[in-house]
Each structure stands twice: as C-alpha cells, then as structure tokens.
What does this fold into?
Amino acid sequence: MANNENIIELKHISKVFDDGFTAVSDFNLEVKRGEFVTFLGPSGCGKTTTLRMIAGFDMPSEGDILLNGQDISKMPPNLRPINTVFQRYALFPHMNIFDNIAFGLKQKKTPKDEISRKVKKVLELVDLEGFEKRSVSTLSGGQQQRVAIARALVNEPQILLLDEPLGALDLKMRKEMQIELKNMHDELGITFIYVTHDQEEALTMSDKIVVMSEGKIQQIGTPEDIYNEPQNAFVADFIGESNLFNGIMTGTKKARFAGGQFDCVDDVPEGTQITAVVRPEDVVLTDPAQGQIRGKVTSVIFKGIHYEIIVQSGRYEVVIQSTKSASVGDVVGMQVAPDGIHIMIAENHTNFFPVDVNRAHHLEFNGTELHASLTQLVKGSRRGENKELLDENGQVIDPDKLHITAAIEPQDIKMTDDVDDENVLIEGTISNLIYKGDHYSYVINTELGQDFIVDDEYLWNMGDQIGLILPIEKMRFSVKK
Amino acid sequence: MIRKTLRTLVPVLTLVFLYAPILILAFFSFTNATQIGMVRGFTLKNYITLFTTEELRSMIVGTLLLAFGSAILATLLGTLGAIGSFYSKKGVSSAIRTVNQIPVINADVVTGFSICILLVVVFGISKDTYIPLIIGHVTLSAPFVYLSVIPKLKQMDSSLYEAALDLGATPASALLRVVIPQIFSGMISGFSLAITLSLDDYFIATYTKPATFDTISTYVVNATKGSQTSIKTALWALSTVIFVIVILIVIGMNIKAAKEQKKG
It folds into this structure.
C-alpha cells in the first residue's frame, strides 16, 4: 500500500463517451479517510460522471481508481464497498421503507434480527423512527431523502457518494439537511464525496473542494483557499461574486487595473499581466476625493443583509456589497485594501470592450461605424424595409437593449502616431510597457477610460499619444444576454 | 334543433350497430330456434349441448390452453426483448424497434403462411407437434408485449437499477427484484393482449395447426359451413358466454381503475 491515509485515489482518469464527448480528462485526486470532499462545478462539468466512475456505473476510458491501494476501476458496482445517495432518491416504489433500507443487507444475507436492529438504528439516525411500514409515496421529499441516506448508510460503506442530494429540496429544508449531513459525517467518520453545483453548499460542508469545469480540475483546496485564493478566473467567478479586472503589475506589490493604482499583498514580478479579483464586500465606498478610483452609481439593489451597488468607473463596472446605501447618480470614490485584492497571473490578454448599436442599427465603437453583419450576430434577426433590424417575430429591435461585446487579441491591434489616420478607432496614452523577449507588451490608457493591451515589436515611449487600429476582421463579437 | 337530435342520434345508432347483433345472438341462444327468426320456445338446450359435447369441450379447453401457453411465452420473450432493447445502444435499440414493428403491421395471413413454409416445409417440423402453432401465436403476440412494456421502462427512474446494483445486488437480482416489479403492469397488459390475440386469431392457426386440432375461430368457421344444426346453435351459446365473460372483465377493470384513482 502506497499511502495508508488515502482511502481512494483517482489517477489520470479520463472518460470519453461513445459519441466522442470527453466528459472528464486527466482527473487526479487523493481523498483521505474520513474526509468530506465536494466536487463543485456548473452542470456538464463532469462532476457527476466522475462520481459515477467511483460508484462503478461508468468505466473510465483511461486511468486507475485505487481503493485502499487496490485498483477497482474494473470492479462492478455491486462488489464495491461504496454506496450512493441518488439525486432523485431512487427509492424502490414497490417496497415499504423497511424493505428499501433492508435491501442492501438482504443482498449480503444478513440475519433477520440483525437487519431489523440495524434498520431501526439508522432510522433513528435520520430522525424517522417508526416509519418502517410506510410506503414511499406517502413521504415528503425531505423524508424520502432521509430514507435514501439511511438506505446507503445502513450498509456501513467505506465511502458514501452523494449526487446533488439536496437539489430537489426547498431552501429552508436544504439548509437544515446541510447541517444534518455535516453532523452525520462527523459522527460516523465515513468518507463523504459530495457533488453539487451550489457553491454555498460546498463552502459550508466540505473539508476539501474540487472545482471542475469542462471535465478538468480547476482547483483543489479547502473552502477558505478556494474563496480567498482562486487560482484562475473561472474559480474566482464561480465561487462567490467577484469583480475581475485585467491589469498589469507596475511595481513591487503594486498593480494597475480598473483604471487605478492599487497596493496588493501578492508579490508578482513587475510587468506581469494579471487578472485582479476583488470581492464585492472588499470594496469600500468613500468620498470621491479619497477613492483610488472614482465612478458614478448606476444601480442600487437592497438584498436583505446588504445593498448591491453597481458603480460605473470609466469603462469598468464595479459591483460592491455594502451595508450603507447610495443613490443612483452619486459620484463616489472606491478603495480596496491590499488584502482585498487577489492577483492571478493572466492566462491570456484578450481585450474585451463593449460596442454600441447606433440609430441606423449598425455596430458603432467610439463614434465609428463597424462594418460587421448584425443579422448574423443576433440570432433569428433580419433587415426590414428601411434597413432596420427586426427580430424573429418581425419586431424592431431596440438598440439600447442590445449589449454587444467585442474581443480582440493584443497582437491584432496596431499602433500609429498619426492619430488622424482614418483607420484609427480610438486614441490613448501608453501607460506601461514591458519587453517580452520578442515583442513589447503595452498598456494603453484610452480616452474612454478603458485600458487596452497591445503587443508590438517596435519600441514606443511611455506617455506617447497614439492611435489604435483595430481591424474589424480580427474582432470577435458576442451578444450579452 | 337538428344539431341536438344528431348529437343524441349518432351515439344511439352507433351503440345499436355495435351491440344489436350480439344481443340478437344472445337472445336466440336461449330459444329452441334452429335458425335466426323462428322462435318456438325458450330452452337451455344450447348451453347443455355446449358443455356436454366432448368435441366442443375439448376445442374450448384446447383454445384456452393455447392462448395461455402462448401468452406466457410471448410475455417472457417480449419483456426480455424490451429490457434488452432498452439497455442497448441507440443503433441496436432502434433496429430492434423496427424489427418489432413489422409483425405488428404485417397481415396475419402473411405471418401464418410464412411460418408454415419455414417450419413445416423448410425445417420439416410436423404440424402435429403443435410447435408451428405455438411459435406462430408467440410470433403474433410477443411484439405487442414488447410495445406495452417499453413505455413502463421509459417511465421508470433509470437510477433504480443502478441503486439496486449499488446496494450489492447482482445484475440478475436487480432485474428481478427492482426492474420487473416496476414494469409488471406493462407485462400484465401485454399478457392480456396476447391472450386476446391468440383467441382472435384465425389465419395463423389455419396454416399451422395440426389437422385434428381446432381453435374456436377455426372451428366456428368450419361448423358454420356445414349443416350440423345442434352444434351450430350451441355456438350461439358459446358466443354469449364469451361476451358475458368479456363484459365482466371490462366492468371489473373499470371498478379497479376507479378505486385506484380514488386512492391516488
């Protein structure tokens, strides 16, 4: 046995379905005995498939699953000392509660008196004493869920798998069951592997969270790690609400993003392009003069325990959670303490910027029309008699309701010092430059308040006034819902 | 006004057309008439003939044995086919579905004739072994069993089978103790359909039955051709008995359904 502490190890697990769809790729995980591990991710991220491979319902296309050091990846589910609580309970409708719970024990030819003793005990554990003779259909969703848990636990599995077990319950019930499940876990000492798409559930219950997206592990860590130190933009965005800004390191523990200069605690080399994560609760509203950045309040929503305030600062939108209210239209300052900023090294530097739709129903950026097909971009739309844009029902689309984002790569943008060139879409000042081996990477502070990142092989000077040429054929457009 | 009259007239006429012939037959079965129309008096003679004539009795028992026997076989095969196709890959499953459709739509006379050719002529199996007849009736009804079981499988929560495996049941035990109970009502309705189909069948039986054996259908067809009047009028009694049994079954089923609805 390689490691006595690990009850289950997944090594380079991949699952490719017959139709060629890769559900899970190169999944590596070690689970310690008695741990509460949660697979967290949006639907279709491969978390349930991974769970099904541990249970034995799906066989991995590649890789090994080691249980106590033994490879079980080819073992059928009925021989694995692992039990599952299914998403929709999967209680046997033709059996009463007793027979449902006793099913597993009967398969193992357990003596009758021992079965009834164990069933009674596990029903006490889930607070359903005296329910033995009831039929499944007379039980509420919450009670059925408890029976499903009891049916799995009565077999004393080494690992209990739970596939979104609380998904069908209402909010209050779900909160109660979360606490009960956590207590059961602490009491029984059984290893729990839990699947959910609910980040709050994962943060509340787990010892260890595995964040997944598109079949790959994004991050493994404790709830605190995952929340405070997300490793990439996906994790930051998925766990809790967050403001994500592209930016650059401008000095030792100094970063520039969202049009402002901030001190931070992460020591990342100067010139590195970064994504800064700022949690909405870490932004403090101040007087305009005291803020590191300034902006105008565009929306205030009361959320019960706090206000959600959205501030437009130049081209950046900042979401803030505050116990103090503000009024729409107020000009405010915003401060973020150094430990409120989490710096991630940027994976790519794609520039995203909003484009407008003008009255003539054409795309427009900074007053220049972009010759790109809107009808191809907006699904089901077509041009009417007067060239106006119609939706699939023939109604004229209101350009103000259409939010379109353009994306362009840094190497596709050209810089020119002839700002009157007809191809220049936007002007700006070079605020930063770093040499990247074979090219320079510039940060351009534009007149619209948005920073653009541009790669260029020639050296320009800090503070140069330049025009940016953004070739339309290199732009990718997407419609924001 | 005309609309209102039509609204009552149409259903009444439909019912008359449906039930009048059966009721007339039932009425005459209690008379001593030798043909429809001439009533001289009422008697139970036809019923006595029906239950005492050895030939008629063995024909009825034979028909029922064939119906139940072939229905049991068809239910087993149809259910296995449905389960197999349900858990197969998409291509296999749709191939089975298509193959299953053909005997359902195909004319019975073609099915009967082809089975006769294949088993009797090609394989040389004697009709006297009853094997061609039983295979014929199973072929006739198994596809209908398949069709009544498949929806039950589709309605079933697919994780039930996995739950049984997860709790340590072998695949066979999971099938027997969890899947079969879920689809049992479908199997029962398939079984009832199979019995009705076997009782109704004329073509397959004529092509495949042993020369000395008759089902009710083949017997009735032959008997009505000849002039054996006491047997012929006894068949009126047989029709009435079958009709009453069917009515009792239908009423029973409706009462059961109503009770279940109240409970649920």
